[in-house]
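Hi again,

Forgot to attach this to my earlier email, sorry! This is the prediction with coenzyme A bound. I've pasted everything inline since the attachment limit keeps bouncing my files.
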Amino acid sequence: MKIRRAQQSDLAHIAALHAESWRDAYSDVLPEQYLTDQLAVDLQRHWRSVEIRSGDVVLVAEDDGIIGFTAIWCRFEPFIDNLHVKPSKRSRRIGSALMKSAVSRLIRAGHRTAYLWVVESNQRAIHFYQKLGGVCTDRELKNLFGHRVPNVKMVWSDITILC
Ligand SMILES: CC(C)(COP(=O)(O)OP(=O)(O)OC[C@H]1O[C@@H](n2cnc3c(N)ncnc32)[C@H](O)[C@@H]1OP(=O)(O)O)[C@@H](O)C(=O)NCCC(=O)NCCS
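Structure tokens for the complex follow:
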């Protein structure tokens, strides 16, 4: 498995993996009809509008094709917007490897903190982030393509603990 920076040309593949991951992980959060009929369209539209800037950290994990990705926007404090591993490839340390690789790049760029929002019912992901040193600090309803879903904020006040 190789981890590399994403290119603009990867974004359609990232959108497809993002939809596959949400369909698997968010079946208790978003309506089934939305997940099957509309989600892939919304995510393709979303990722088509994404511009990866030089300070951002957007990585893909690849073996035969893209099997995971993370997107961290560094316009202000680093915001971990996405971390997804293909459902059939989970629990093989790919998510941890993506986080660690991304954080080393953040540290080299001079960052020391990061945060993300995760769906509150996604206990597996919350447990995963806690094991990596993240701390829950806040709770808010977030709008996921027109659906209001409780989320918790996870914060790393010192990302060097991830390395
Ligand atoms: C969360 C996610 C990115 C983790 O990536 P991963 O490659 O599966 O995780 P890793 O193999 O690196 O596992 C590290 C830890 O995650 C947790 N974890 C992984 N698989 C798990 C499972 N099947 N059940 C419960 N916890 C699990 C465990 O804490 C695990 O540590 P352990 O093996 O020592 O118990 C991935 O499971 C995923 O894509 N989930 C769906 C999308 C998602 O929830 N993304 C986060 C949204 S903010």
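The mean pLDDT is 97. The first helix runs from residue 11 to 25.

That should be everything now.

G.
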